[in-house]
Amino acid sequence: MKQRLVALDVLRGLTVGGMILVNTPGSWRHVYAPLRHAAWNGMTPTDLVFPFFLFMMGVSACYSLRKFDYRLDRALLAKILRRTLLIFLIGIGLNAFGSILASLRTALQEPDADLGAQLLDAMAHVRISGVLQRLAICYGIGSLILCTVRHRLLPALIAGLLAGYYLLLQLGDGFVQGPESLLARVDAFCLGAHSYKAAGPDPEGVLSTIPSVAHLLIGFCIGRICTERTELSDRLVRLFLYGSLLLMGGLLFQYLCPLNKKIWSPTFALAACGLATLLLAILIRTIDQTGRFRHTWPLEVFGMNPLFCYIFSQLFSVAIVRMPLRSMPLYDRLYAALAGWLSEGPFASLLCALIVTGVVWLAGLFLYRRKICIRI
User: Fold this and answer.
1) SS3 of 261, please?
2) Backbone dihedral region of 36: left (phi > 0), alpha (psi from -120 to 50 degrees) or beta?
3) Residues 4 and 300 sit within 8 Å (Cβ to Cβ)
4) How many other CB atoms sit within 10 Å of the CB of residue 343?
5) Is the distance from CB of 273 to CB of 55 less than 8 angstroms?
6) What CA–CA distance (Å, rounded) separates 12 from 10?
7) Cis before 45 (ω within 30)
8) What mean pLDDT comes out for the span 239-267?
């Protein structure tokens, strides 16, 4: 079998870099339109970043589980459960870290505030869901499916998950943004005080995990094509074909089922996976087949340690947004300095995000040069 495709690490690196960039603007009031999420229905480039990462997790599962011949023995089960729990707990820990710093900042700036009560209230309302939590759950469920279900049945299973979820949306006012939506009601029942603070369904809620698992399984099916022993040109033809079909399916059926990331609608899953597949095919063509794009190492820095870079970016951004606790945060000072130099607006905000992304990239570069790969 040929060596692992470099394009896989490049796409993973692009995705991680994009996640950091869109999550750390200098000011949320000044953000370029493509770097904003769609208000409800619709899809922007920012809406594709997290789905691309979930898609690549499915592709990566093809490589990691193949070592075990997709047989669920005790050792593999323990590994899947351990990784699922670790990623999930790290996600909750990141949420708790932000809540604790926010409470400390409020308490220290208000002389009459009860610090103990502030901290207890923060911990009582820590959000359970989140990006890492969804990745963990999808990885755990998806891995168990891939090791217990015959792979030739996966297309039918994916179709069943998406069709079943569509019926839930139709019967439960799932396309409504308010709290009357079935998704919002299930989130409120299951998560309670630990749910998303905004009205309506949680973007990483309970029921929307169903199409997210299907999303990961689509990534796995695309990964199977990438690992075939056939000629690379033949694999590319199939990638372009299936990517186009997925994208067209998502776009054509959006009139019955709107594209919506917040509820992870079936059409959104299809369109996002289609775009990810097409981009992966383009990268394989230009990097691995023709060699026209050879200087890929800057993107491989993120791609080599994707979860570490994302977690580090979250810790770093929360820290500089909240600290120092008694005065203007470092990030506000940075944006104020850039706004004073460039004038307040989206360009200064984007530059702040690029600086944070650059700091995380330097941390990843330290590991990359020493060939250190941190597995979570």
Assistant:
1) coil
2) beta
3) no
4) 9
5) yes
6) 5
7) no
8) 96
**DSSP-H helix ranges across the chain:** 6-23, 49-66, 74-109, 115-124, 131-148, 154-171, 182-191, 209-226, 232-252, 266-283, 297-304, 306-322, 330-342, 346-369
What does the pLDDT look like over 41-84, one tens digit per residue?
999 999 999 999 999 999 999 988 998 999 999 999 999 999 99
Name the one residue in this structure whose structure tokens are 């607006």.
345
Domain spans of the chain, in order of start: 1-36+301-376, 44-294
Model confidence at 135: pLDDT above 70? yes
- CA dist., res. 325 & res. 312, Å (int): 20
Distance, CA of 265 to CA of 282 (rounded, Å): 26
- Can you tell me whether residue 1 is helix, strand or coil? coil
Instruction: Give 101's contacts (C-beta < 8 A, 6+ positions apart).
Output: 318, 319, 322, 323, 325
pTM over 0.90: yes
3-class SS letters over 54-111? HHHHHHHHHHHHHCCCCCCCHHHHHHHHHHHHHHHHHHHHHHHHHHHHHHHHHHHHCC
Query: Which CA distances in Å does 161 have to 71, 158, 208?
Result: 23, 5, 11
Question: d(Cα 287, Cα 272) in Å, to the nearest integer?
Answer: 22
Structure confidence at residue 3 (pLDDT): 57
pLDDT of residue 113: 65
Helices 330-342 & 346-369 angle (0-180, nearest 10): 120
In angstroms, the CA 309 to CA 41 distance is 30
List, for residues 153-188, the tens digit of each pLDDT value: 999 999 999 999 999 999 999 899 888 899 999 998
pLDDT of residue 323: 83
- In 3D space, the residue among 135, 54, 58 whose CA is nearest the CA of residue 94 turns out to be 135
How far the first Cα of the chain sits from its last, in Å, is: 27
How far is 41 from 143, CA to CA, in rounded Å?
30
In the chain, the largest separation of any two C-alpha atoms, in whole Å, equals: 71
